Amino acid sequence: MMDKTVPDLAAAVAGIADGMSLMVGGFGGSGAPIELIHALIDRFRATGSPTRLTVINNNAGNGRIGIAAMIDAGMVDKMVCSFPRSADPRAFTEKYLANQIGLELVPQGTLAERIRAGGAGIPAFYTPTSFGTDLAEGKPIAEFEGRSYVQERWLKADAALIKAELADTMGNLTFRKAARNFSPLMAAAAVLTIVQASRIVAPGEIDPEQVVTPGIFVDRIVEVANAQQEEALMRMGVAYA
Amino acid sequence: MSTKLSNAQIAWRAAQDIEDGAYVNLGIGFPEMVAKFQPPGRQAIFHTENGVLNFGESPAEGEEDWDLINAGKKAITLKPGAAFFHHADSFAMVRGGHLDVAILGAYEVAETGDLANWSTGPKGVPAVGGAMDLVHGAKRVAVITDHVTKDGKPKLVKRCSLPLTGVACVTRVYTSLAVIDIENQRFVVREKLAGLTMEDLQAVTGAELVVNGAVADLSVPEL
Predict the structure, then answer these.
(1) Cβ contact (<8 Å) for A85 and B128?
(2) A128 in reach of chain B (CB within 8 A)
(3) A205 to chain B, minimum CA–CA distance in Å?
(4) Do A58 and A111 contact (CB within 8 A), yes or no?
(5) pLDDT tens digits, chain A, 241 residues: what are they?
(6) Which residues of A touch B124 (CB under 8 A)?
(7) What's the CA gap between A189 and A157, in Å, rounded?
(8) DSSP A198-226
């Protein structure tokens, strides 16, 4: 019987290697898989790996936890995001201004669609977004029905870290409120999709009508009951250092 | 009446043009204020980029659920009939022409309808968010803004000097002095403050203002 659960967080993030591209679900603190990220930081502190990562997320970390803590630790070479600002953007800002981290700035809807295309096997598409702006520089332009559109390419990743609400052992997922945001897209676009779920249930316990991400997109599941919420941690002044 | 509208009054004026049943996206920051001034008897459905339709006001302090936020990362509440969806669906609503109105802030608006509202130049960390998508999404893209910068320079100009968010996308501008439509690459004045002459308004505008039909008084309650 198919069972994608792994025993603990360390096993969940095993195999994420130096130089990989890593999608991380969440929009700000909503949907940020804090425990998976911190497990990756733990491994880096213990072994020096993984490092030189390219991290794909809407933002570039907040405070001293989550993605910001990965950046602080020196694990990230490049961010691909739409909005590398936050209430406390020190981690990214300091490294960016010192030329110690790269940035590919992508309009938010283009970022979502590039990830969707990556998961759907569509190598490129045209969007009106960014036409005539600096962010369209060097990209092919085409006209459709009298309007100009910019060609954008798919975005895929070696691995994705995702926070779900419920998972069954086959990897079918539900999400909590607005915490789904990029996660269903990233689950499809990554070679290795790693999910932390607040609760893991038996197949059949999630009504198929309620499944948001079908298990075919998911490789590993680890249960993290009472998962921490990034924004709540921020407001408590927590640092993962 | 004072010599210019407050931000709340600009937001109030913009809110009067939102039709009953409209699907609306409000840019983060100042435009979010528009939601407070929905005329009685009309219901707008608010969309936020991070995957919520039909959200309401912020919850009371201490009642926040940080998985339930808007694009500005502020805690929100849901109204009956709300829906969650992922980011690709959210931007399908945006680019697919399903939103009726988007109301955004601006650094500069050109008479061509070009908008600059995401970058003040090469310094610092650039961030674009959903602004470039939103300007191509809604059936109407309106801007709310002070008529001039803090230094008194025109924000309504012939051509934008700052990096563009979108080309030929803005259709109406609500400023602290006037309501101006962009038609055929011209600024057409629809309303202006009663105490202001056309010459006064032209003096603080960086492109030619056109009158095409009546110019009404811009009349807004004290707020």
Answers:
(1) no
(2) yes
(3) 21
(4) yes
(5) 899 999 999 999 999 999 999 999 999 999 999 999 999 999 999 999 999 999 999 999 999 999 999 999 999 999 999 999 999 999 999 999 999 999 999 999 999 999 999 999 999 999 999 999 999 999 999 999 999 999 999 999 999 999 999 999 999 999 999 999 999 999 999 999 999 999 999 999 999 999 999 999 999 999 999 999 999 999 999 999 7
(6) 97
(7) 6
(8) EEEE-TTSS-GGG-SB-GGG--EEEE-TT
Q: Which fold has domain B7-217?
A: Glutaconate Coenzyme A-transferase (3.40.1080)
One-letter amino acid at A181 equals N
Query: Which has the closest alpha carbon to A165: A198, A194, A187, A214?
Result: A198
Going along chain A from its start, the domains and CATH numbers come out as 9-120+155-235 (3.40.1080.10)
Catalytic positions of B are: 49
Burial per residue of B71-81, b for 16 or more beta-carbon CB atoms within 10 angstroms, e otherwise: bbbebbebeee
Residues in chain B: 223
Structural domain spans, chain B:
7-217
Q: How far apart are CA B85 and CA B24, in angstroms?
A: 16
* Paired tokens of B50: 């991070």
Element (H or E) spanning A36, and its range? helix A34-47
Which among B67, B94, B129 is the nearest to A30, CB-wise?
Answer: B67
Helices (H), A48-189: 66-73, 90-97, 108-120, 183-189
Show residues of chain B in contact with A105, CB under 8 Å: 126-128
